[in-house]
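quick q for whoever's on today - can somebody do inverse folding on this one?? i tried earlier but teh output was garbage lol. tokens:
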């Protein structure tokens, strides 16, 4: 997992992230030139979230509990709990029925 960070970030329990995804929480020199308006901000990935292969999560974004991010998506805004988000920029295309999810709480 490529995590570009100099800032605090939180990943929930039992989340899944596919290969080649990026979670950017700070600026590299190249990114700073390309995306000057972005500053280092924490990223939060909720419990049981799924992040597809090749997805990019930008600084300051929260991916909610049980949220699903499609492969190669670019997450520019928060993804709510139980949402499915895809695209570039990612958009929520579906809300999952939270009654169908069962968690093993210890």
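ok took a stab at it. sequence:
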């Amino acid at each position: 997992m490529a995590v570009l960070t100099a800032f605090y970030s939180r990943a929930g329990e039992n989340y899944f992230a596919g290969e080649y995804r990026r979670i950017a929480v700070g600026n590299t020199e190249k990114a700073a030139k390309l995306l000057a308006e972005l500053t280092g901000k924490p990223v939060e990935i909720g419990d049981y979230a799924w992040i597809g292969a090749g997805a990019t999560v930008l600084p300051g974004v929260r991916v909610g509990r049980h949220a699903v991010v499609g492969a190669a998506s670019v997450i520019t805004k928060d993804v709510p709990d139980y949402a499915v988000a895809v695209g570039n920029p990612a958009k929520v295309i579906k809300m999952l029925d939270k009654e169908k999810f069962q968690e093993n709480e210890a």
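fwiw The helical segments are 29-34. also The mean pLDDT is 76. so keep that in mind when u check it
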